[in-house]
Specification:
6-stranded parallel β-sheet; alpha/beta; 2 domains; Rossmann fold; globular
């Protein structure tokens, strides 16, 4: 049987959740049925070194710096030359480029676009936000399938943007449980042992979306002093450091920067806290649950309420509420029995998202869309 040629499409390989998911898919995709390639607008990013060796990368910026119109032209030209069976793009801007490039190429390949962040939550500036919404409304229906990573987001696409329900297939992010558990044992944590305080860890890009300012503010409301460790990098770091200094908690807040392997540090947490204002499907939350860490999360759109059952395998609190975050963290820090119960239940819950199970859904989607 001839393998199907599938182009996965990203802007670049930054250290975000979407890029991590695509790398995971590239590693796991059945090579007997599919021949994966990666198309990037810019060949850069921390995950370049983690790509499978058998995956060819097409760099649309190879012949000089481009922009959206140059990328569309080069991508259309690449599609005509390589004649893939399918394009599978991720994130709204990349999706729009892929839709237009396929149209201009006149090649009859299938197209799957994937939305990864809540449409209501994301705010990238007025013009960018309007472009995103207009693009979804006007162009997404021309794709063969639209894949959000949460059921809630799929409902947004149908109810708010008129996407035909038959085209929307929600698939959560795959989580490599065996790899996470193995990597948690393979290196020393980057966090020093100097404190006897319990560790509360937040992980993700340091951006306003992640709400780390709310997590820092929660320290001033907590009845139990804890050490907060933030794993990640981003444009918000200076502001967050200034906030911790202003609130008098700078001696209890640690910024580790981006960690290729954050799991040894994550495994030491007493509590993991997701303070996000919006998400798609929060990888960091599921990874913490994989290691049996009891988790507190906001009820942000979208994802956490599809992962956690409040009081069973995690605790959920309102968005933008530092007092509620502090209260949930206190509840776990003060009750070892509850911590163990929620940690064990969370570990069991994430088996639903293990790579083999989720990859079967991705592979079935690709097969069905192509045929």
């Amino acid at each position: 049987m001839e393998r199907k040629k599938v182009f996965f499409v990203l802007h670049y390989l930054a250290g975000g959740g979407t890029e991590r998911v695509v790398v995971r898919i590239l590693h796991s995709l059945d090579r007997a049925r599919f021949h994966p390639f990666l198309v990037v607008f810019q060949k850069k990013g921390v995950f370049l070194s983690e790509l499978p060796q058998d995956v060819q990368v097409f760099d649309l910026d190879r012949y000089g710096s481009g922009g959206r119109f140059v990328w569309i032209y080069r991508f259309a030209k690449l599609i005509r030359k390589e004649n893939p069976d399918m394009l599978f793009s991720f994130l709204w801007f990349v999706n729009l480029v892929a839709i237009v490039a396929r149209f201009l190429s006149r090649v009859r390949c299938r197209l799957v676009v994937s939305e990864r962040v809540s449409i209501d939550g994301a705010r990238e500036g007025y013009l960018e936000d309007m472009l995103r919404r207009a693009g979804i409304f006007l162009l997404y229906s021309s794709a063969d399938r639209i894949v959000p990573n949460s059921v809630w987001m799929g409902k947004q696409l149908v109810d708010r943007f008129g996407i035909p329900p038959r085209k929307v297939v929600a698939i959560p992010n795959p989580v490599d449980i065996d790899r996470i558990e193995a990597r948690a044992r393979e290196a020393k944590p980057v966090i020093a042992e100097e404190s006897t305080m319990p560790l509360v860890i937040g992980m993700g890009r340091l951006t306003p979306q992640k709400g780390f300012d709310l997590l820092i503010r929660s320290m001033t409301f907590s009845r139990f002093p804890f050490r907060l460790v933030l794993i990640g990098e981003g444009e918000d770091q200076d502001r967050l450091q200034a906030l911790s200094l202003k609130l008098g908690v700078t001696d209890r807040v640690v910024f580790t920067g981006f960690q290729t392997n954050p799991y040894p540090s994550l495994a030491r947490a007493a509590v993991f806290a997701l303070s996000s204002r919006f998400e798609g499907f929060p990888n960091a939350l599921v990874e913490a649950m994989t290691l049996g860490i009891p988790c507190v999360s906001t009820r942000c759109p979208t994802g956490p309420e599809e992962i956690i059952t409040d009081g069973v395998d995690g605790l959920l609190v309102p968005v933008e509420d530092s007092r509620a975050l502090a209260g949930a963290i206190d509840r776990l820090l003060s009750d070892e029995k509850l911590r163990k119960k929620i940690g064990l239940a969370g570990r069991e819950r994430v088996r639903e998202f293990d790579v083999p199970r989720i990859m079967r859904r991705f592979e079935s989607l690709i097969e069905e869309a192509i045929t």
